[in-house]
Every structure is written in C-alpha cells, then in structure tokens.
C-alpha cells in the first residue's frame, strides 16, 4: 500500500522482537511493545551492577547517571527541563501525589475545572482533593456526536476562583486532540495552573509542553515503547513552591522531593533507550530534541495515513458504529459491532491474532457521556509507529466476519 509519507515501518518493526509472534498489535493505546534497544538497556543496567543513588561506590554512581540521563531524555521528548522531570511508577500515582500537594491550600470557594473527555487519572485525583478541601468542581462537557471538547465553554467555566484546569492533550479512546493551547491561555489569564495529561498524545507526534501552555505535563513511557515508568514535567521554579508530604530523611531538592521510595533504576535506563529509539526511527540530524521532532512528525503522518484506511473500512460496514469524529485526532478508533458485546468482538479478533482492547479504558466520564459505559463500552483499535497495512487488513477482515 503506497503512502505519501516515507516512513520506514518495516525497519522499525524489525527492532521489536514481540512482533515476531505474528499478532497484529493494535492495543498500543493500552501499552506499546518495546524495541530490542530498550530491553538491552534494562538488561545491561542489571548486568553491570547498580546500587541506590547517593552512595560512595561505583554502582551507586551508575544509578545516579541513569537517573540524570532519564530526566534529560524525558525533557527532550516533551520540551521541558531535566531538573523539572519527576519520575515514578506511573502517571496515576504521580498525579495523585501532586494533586494532594497542590491542593493543600484550597478551600471553600476555590474551583477546579476538569473534563469529561479525560482519562480518569486526570479527573478523580482532582475531584477527590477538591471534595476534601470543600472546593467546587466544574465540568467541561464533550460533544457526544463529534467527540470534541468545545473551547468556548471554558470562558464560562474559568474564573477568578479557578485554581487549576486539568485537560487531556488527546483522548485515549476517541483520539480527540482538543485545543489545549486555547484552554490553557484562558486558565493563565485567570491565574490558574494547568495540568495536561499527555499520556496518549506523547506517543503520536512531536510534543512541546511550553507551546501547549502546560504548567504540568504528564506522560508514561510504556505508551511510547518504554517500560512502565511515569513522569510529570514542570518548571523547576514552580515545583519549588509546592511542598508534598515526605519523609524527614528524604531529599528536599526539586524534583527529588516528589519521588518517594527507591526508583526502578534499570527501567529508567530503558526510558532513555526508548527516547533514543524514537529519535532514530527516521534519519535526522541535530540535537536529540530536534531529531525527535523530525522522527515523530514522520511517524504521526504515517499513522494518520494508515488510520484513514482503517476508518474508511470500518465506516463502510453497516454493522459497525464508530464513536467520535473529531477534526484533530490520533490514530485511535472506538467502535461497537451489532449483535456482539465489545468483549465478544475482542475475543473473536484475538482468535484471529488481532489484539484490541474492550471496555471503558478508564475513560469513565466519557463513556458515560456517550451512553455506552453500562453496556460494556466499546472496542478500541489504535495504531502506533510499528503497525502496518497488514495489521489493518486483518482487523477489517475480522470485523467484517462478525456481520450478523
């Protein structure tokens, strides 16, 4: 299948050993596979010997270097600063920790704005800390017909008592890319902070948290070819003003004060390798940041071209209902099949070697707004940079066979 975008998908696929099993991995929105370079980096960290950070011996120094390299890599990926990169086990855990710290001085009359488009990890931490503080939660609504998050409503939602606006850079089920820049501009005009969930968006194109207006930008490496590590990136000067609960004996420097316990150092080495992998998918020159922008731009164009084929195929089937038709989106489809529950569709496709997800995928408010949460929600099929036309063909063939 010829594409306008010259993306070397077959050479990229060859770096992922898991793809050798012959399955069509269309479950990347729930977590991608990892290339050999990431696996090698994790193994090498263990084989060489690592210790806890801050020690006087060589193995400890190696861990210090791994952590520093990981912060620099994540900063390059999202356009932040290494000394503003908070690392942890996943985005949900980090968001809960930051929400508790940010909301320490909230009280009655204060307001937080959340969205029904978002993954629950960028909703529930904020609504729960607001409830404890006696603050008011204001909701941005989704257009259920299009899957869009209209910007216009934020002018009424954001005011002088708004303390924080939480919004997603891309929906993890519909792929919707809201106008985050416009939303964060309104928040900043009112003196509010912004917390942008970039977990889904980061895998699908170049990212610039400063251009987005994100005071906090959250991401997870396992969504972009890395291990199960999360990160939240912010301006170090902003982090200096926030005081999380911490052990008296632990570091009080930024960003370390937000990181509890001992890190998974070998996995952090894998995060750096994943960023390097993303930067090398297509030939490029310049800094790693510049190569990432080039490589991920090419990957995004390729994914969307391939996704157009997937969408056209699903739309042509009368027994398929697609949810959301946003103007800007990632290569993520959410659909149901007449006569079959989403789980039955996923099981039928799995029997044909096609991996898709079913259910609400933690888009709890969104699936409720769409009116499908109580019936099993829908099936999600998402493309990432290692998917090819054969994956799409197998999905479409499998879904076509389910016609009642």
UniProtKB/TrEMBL annotation:
What protein is this chain from? Cysteine desulfurase-like protein
List residues of the Aminotransferase class V domain.
25-395
Where does the source fall among the domains of life? Bacteria
Query: InterPro entries, alphabetically?
Result: Aminotrans_V_dom, Cys_dSase-rel
The protein's matches in PANTHER family, at most eight in alphabetical order, are given as: CYSTEINE DESULFURASE, PYRIDOXAL PHOSPHATE (PLP)-DEPENDENT ASPARTATE AMINOTRANSFERASE SUPERFAMILY
